[in-house]
Sequence to fold (709 residues):
Amino acid sequence: MNHQDCRWEPATAPNDTNFDINQYTHFKLGKPTTCYRYTDAAGNTLSYALRFDQGSSKSFSFLTYGAFDGTVGWHSKAIPDKRPIFNIVDLVQKLTAPVLVVEGEKTAVSGAAIFPDYVVVTTMGGAQAGAKTDWSPLTGRNVVILADNDDAGRKYANTVASILTTVGANSVRIVNPGPRFPNSWDLADPLPSDVSQDDLLALVNGCDAWPPMLPVPDTRPRVPTLPAKMVPNCLRPWLQDAAERLGVPLEMVVVPALVAVATVCGRKIGIYPKRYDSWLVWPVLWAVIIARPSKRKTPAINEGLRPLRVLEEEAQNDFESRKAEITAEKEVFKALRAQCHEDLRKAVKSNCRDSIDAVKTEIATIERREKEERVTRRRYLVNDSTVEKVGHIVEENPNGIAIYRDELTGFLNSFHKPGHETDRGFYLEGFNGDGRMTVDRMSREVTIKGLFTNIIGGTQPAKFDAYIAAAVTGYDDDGLVQRFQSAIFPDFIENIEEIDRVPDRFARESALDVFRRLDRLDPSQLGAAADENGAFGIRFASDAQAIWDQWYRELQNELPNTPEPAFESHLAKYSALMPKLALIFHLLNVVSGLDHGNGVSAEAAELAAQWCDFLRQHAAKIYHGVTAKEAKATEALAAKIKAGKVFDGISVRDINRNDWSGLTAKEVVGSALEALAACHWLRVEMVPTDGRSKEIVRLHPKLREGAKK
Fold:
């Protein structure tokens, strides 16, 4: 007979069956280890759940009274649907007691001993039986579901919670044991050594007994502080003294100082990284210091840029002292132009073609001489100027300038303002050091050949994170943010001893003398040759070239394994950063008398490679938000809680709807909620509504108190 065709009708077992479960032997599994009786609300037996322990494995079967293929009696079958709740008699007798739902009869028996104030119930058939159970007896009851500590347990809890809301449970709350408990833990297992019975009671009892909040783990990778040996010798005393007095990591003053060096070097000389290729790299550095407020970013940057300010002041004084000469020069050219115009008038009147052409040639000569002999003020540093003004300054200072903005992200975001749409392209061209740009001014059109602009500024982690996120998602994805290759995000030592001493003036003056010598540097004295455009460049010395070749191959092999395209793009630009730094270190050694000028040295190349490795570690920390999205989402959600944007009782759906930065995907929000729940910041509860059940966030009482204040 095909048993699938047989009709199976469970029934209530009569009291006179004289059935003894202890005498039962399963035809295949043998004697059951444990039997659990399922009844109706009146206590009448409906079925037995049988457990068979066989070594480390276990099996289950059911024995139910009813009619099977016309035979009435006990059969090895389960109730197909509308299965009774285990322990339903207690449920009926304790009408006001809270209900604790667990997974499995053994767990329910253990739970009843641990939680005597609860009615502990479960389902026939374990985790798969939630939808096959008659949950109507829980209508109007307050229910807590204690999930097994695994994915199957959490799925079972969510299924049951959803059903309970539809049958009209008064309240439903899911309790997930969390990371303090082993995987797959349930109430039938021993408590972990660091969890007490009171801890367990507090966990189940809910809001009235929250464990202390734990700090959200900072998952950003730690970064090293710059070793003093990586600071060029001629600048080391000055920069070490400054960092110690300011109480900041050494790199916070060294990076701005390198930008200052790169600005003075400017377009005097570039470097050909490859042995024979015509690829010429100019020492353009874009840098940003990322740190929380009050971490002395501004004083550190100002100290590193101090030599530029001194040179700027000296150039201003020189310009002021030559004002009389400049005025006289203007008058000379004014008179020459007036004479030419008079000669041109006469030539036109006489209709003499040769005379007209001669005067036109003379006017062109005067215009060229005026431009060549014009006395301009040497500029090094610009703080707050329009693109048009910067273009004018760079035109008069073809060696290039540095732009310093105290709050860098404000400067970058200004590119989106109406009327500033072309600013972004201007600075992108300026990064190459040899860009050509035409800028329209009210008085005239300015064409710049060899646009060279260094940029440096400070910002806060959250602001720069948002800017990087835009680059990753496609908004502003044009490589601008990746050009900040000299970006640092230092780790700070807390409670550092405050140092109060007079600055080392000798070290400052010695460093300033290095900058003055760089400013007077003649590239032809270094053995550099000019190309067809008049640009000077040098190559690596032979031993340094071998270092570059090996380093470049390793970089190219690393790039395909980079976890995020935006981070890969950042590292790819190191192919130019390394030779830039090598050139800078070499020129510092040359003007300090520590090296000759015939090719960038191996010492400079080695130091540049070490700097790239150092900056790469900082870059990994900076891009952590896009390479470790879940960790970043946890930090973002914690920040929203502190800001009052996520409040007690908010629904998970509403959090998803806000589409906050770093919290745009449902699975990422879910991961962040789980992580903060593990730190006891919050709990996610399932509550009934008129329609589908709803997940809401319950905040730790301390967070609720903070919101009230």
In short: The domain at 88-208 is CATH 3.40.1360.10 (Dna Topoisomerase Vi A Subunit; Chain: A, domain 2). The chain has a mean pLDDT of 86.
